[in-house]
Amino acid sequence: MVAKTSADPSAADSAVGKKKVLLVDDHPVLREGLGRLINDQNDLMVCGEADSPPQALELAASLVPDLVALDLTLAGGDGLELCKQLHDLYPRLPILIVSMHDESLYAERALRAGASGYVMKQEPQEQVMAAIRQTLAGDTWLSDKMAAKLLRSLRGAKDSAERSPLDRLTDRELEVFRLIGQGLGVKSIADTLFLSPKTVDAHKEHIKQKLNLKTNNELLQYAIEMRSRS
Q: Does residue 70 contact residue 95 with C-beta atoms inside 8 Å?
């Protein structure tokens, strides 16, 4: 587990006036790469790093960041749920989702959870930095494609062909579905999401009903298929 702060006294002078970014991601290599990119900027600095929701909440309280860069996949937790918690605790704190997961499936959910923007890790570095600066400025960041999709939705033009079957799932059901696609069993999913196995089983039944799947094997195959597309 990682809970890291940037408390080097020798860096204090150079940090004056810089906006503080808290990184929350469970991949050390990706966290290191994004952290280096941020610290290379004249106006930004990484103030801390976390790989789990409890660590993120602790550092958000102690470090008072100007922005949280948050992945959806975390060690022992759910990024969407953490986003909701952070937004409830700090309504004015910008939260930028930086994730590998398909924006067409998660971006709208992230905005509903309180995020200020959504950028995929596969985007060029310039796009990621633009997303950070735009959300820091109090604006919303979405790709042009995703912004157009949401605008069509608001206008009532979102037809059935454009909707993913997974749009029928709740945020928690979608997280259970994602973990099924990773090959996790009921107990592992329960431990990851801090739920009871009985609750996970109930979510699986609801997912099968909403996706018109009859067996657990059909659910597993579909979850793996959808994961390969993202």
A: yes
* Greatest pairwise CA separation for the chain in angstroms: 62
Query: Last residue of a domain, which of 107, 131, 153?
Result: 153
- Quote the number of domains for the chain: 2
- Residues 32-35: contacts with CB under 8 Å, at least 24 apart: 34/69, 34/98, 34/128
Task: Based on the fold, state whether residues 221 and 177 are members of the same structural domain.
Answer: yes
pTM, two decimal places: 0.79
pLDDT along the chain (230 residues), means of 10: 60 72 94 95 96 96 98 88 97 96 89 96 94 96 88 62 78 92 92 91 95 93 81
In this prediction, residue 230 carries a pLDDT of 61
Q: What is the CATH number of the domain that holds 100?
A: 3.40.50.2300
DSSP class per residue in 83-107: HHHHHHH-TTS-EEEEESS-HHHHH
3-class secondary structure, 23:
strand
What is the 3-state composition of the chain as percent helix, strand, coil, each rounded to the nearest 5? Answer: 55, 15, 30
What is the domain extent for residue 48? 3-153
- Residue 203: CB partners within 8 Å, gap ≥ 6? 172, 173, 176, 195
